[in-house]
Every structure is written in structure tokens, then in C-alpha cells.
Amino acid sequence: EKSLQSQKARNGSNSLRMPLVKSFVLPFLAPVVPQLFLIGFQYSQAFFIQAVIQYLEDSNEDTNSFGYGLIGACGLIYVGMAISNSFYSYYAERAATVVRAALCALVYRKTTHATMETTSEAASVTLMSRDVLAICQGVRTMHLLWSSLVQVALGCWLLYTKLGPSFITPIATVCICSAILSWRMKFARKRQTVWMEKIQVRVALTAAVISDMKLFKMLGMSDNIAEMINE
């Protein structure tokens, strides 16, 4: 928390991106190595299947040792995928937990130090729930961005070795779909802002009901309040 606070002060902007990266370099970098191993094991399957087909087409008796080697390779690939994926998931979740703890602590400290005129309980609760959750979700999946580029590069190379220049066809399809998605995402920011405002209203109402639950029960308004929350 202190490291994030100092980085935020030195950065001099309202963006959280660089302060988070500078404060939690090691937790952010920890999933990189397991993800690289996972990519390697995933693409080893293509070579493994090719070797299996070649082994099945070859009927020589001298290939028995090669068959045992394929059995060992199969175990190595799929066990390696499971272990790499486990380590990646663990380190990604660990980084998200560290970020969530630091952000919640900062929001709590800021809320307790602010005056009633400059803060809102609903805004604070929303920040510590929905906004922090969205940031943590981004931390969990951010390594999929660079790993996808690596996988696309390897996939293009494998397709080129097998298909030649024809590999451009699926790449062109991916580029067209990416362009359409980028164009559609331009309209998402405004709608996301409206969505977050509605979430803030819902969280504020829920927090108010929980804090005054005894009063609502005494007045017999439980059913009406439940309908308001459901709406």
C-alpha cells in the first residue's frame, strides 16, 4: 500500500496503470515463465500428433523403442500442461489478490480521511467492490495479451511450413474480425459509464438497507424495500 501510494505521488497523474506496475513488478512478472512453458507444451502437441501418425504408418519392428518414446512424450506434454497451467493460475490469482488488497486499503484510507462534503459512501462502496473487481479481473487476464501474440506467431509459422502462402487466409480473417471488434469497442465506453452509475445506485441502496434493516422491519417495509432492490 505504501509503495503504491508513493508511486502514485511521483507519477503525478490520475492513472493507476504505471503506479500499479511499478509497485508490483515481481507479482506481475511471476506468471510469465509458467505461461511460456504452457505455450511450449501446447504447441508440442502438433509435433507429437505428427510423430504418432508417422509411427502408425511405419510397420517396421525396429520402431518399438520409438513407440515407448511417444508414450513418455505424451505423459510429459500433458503433465507439463497441467503443472504450467496450475502455476500460471496461482501466480495470476496471487497478483490480483495483492492488487485488490492494496486498492481496498487505499480507498478505505482515503474515505476515512476525507470530509463528509467531499466523499460519498455509495461511491466508496462501489470503488471497493465493482471497480476493484474489474481491475483485478484485468490483472488476471493481462498475460493473455502478449501470450496470444506469441501463439499467433507460432501458429503462422506452423501453417506456413504446412500450407505455404495460403496461411494468409486465416490471418486475414482474424485481422478483419479484430478491426470490427475495435470499431464496436468505441461504443462500449459510454455504455460502461452508464452501467457503473447504475451499479453505484444499486450498491448505495443495498448498503443503506443493510445499515437500517431493523428500522425497515419495525415499519413493515421489508417487502417494499425488497422490490426496490430487485428492480
Short structural summary:
The protein has 231 residues and is mainly alpha-helical. The chain contains eleven helices and no strands. The two termini are 37 Å apart.
Task: Describe this entry's structure for a reader.
With 231 residues, the protein is mainly alpha-helical. The protein is 85% helix and 0% strand. It contains eleven helices and no strands. The protein has helices at 2-11, 17-23, 25-29, 32-57, 64-113, 121-141, 143-163, 168-185, 188-211, 213-218, 222-230. α4 runs antiparallel to α5 and α4 packs parallel to α7 (143-163). The longest helix has 50 residues, at 64-113. The two termini are 37 Å apart.
Q: Structural class of the secondary elements?
A: mainly alpha
Order of helices and strands: HHHHHHHHHHH
DSSP, total strands: 0
Distance from N terminus to C terminus (CA atoms, Å) equals 37 Å
Query: What share of the residues lie within helices?
Result: over 70%
Query: Which regions have little confidence, pLDDT < 50, spanning 5+ residues?
Result: none
Overall geometric form: elongated
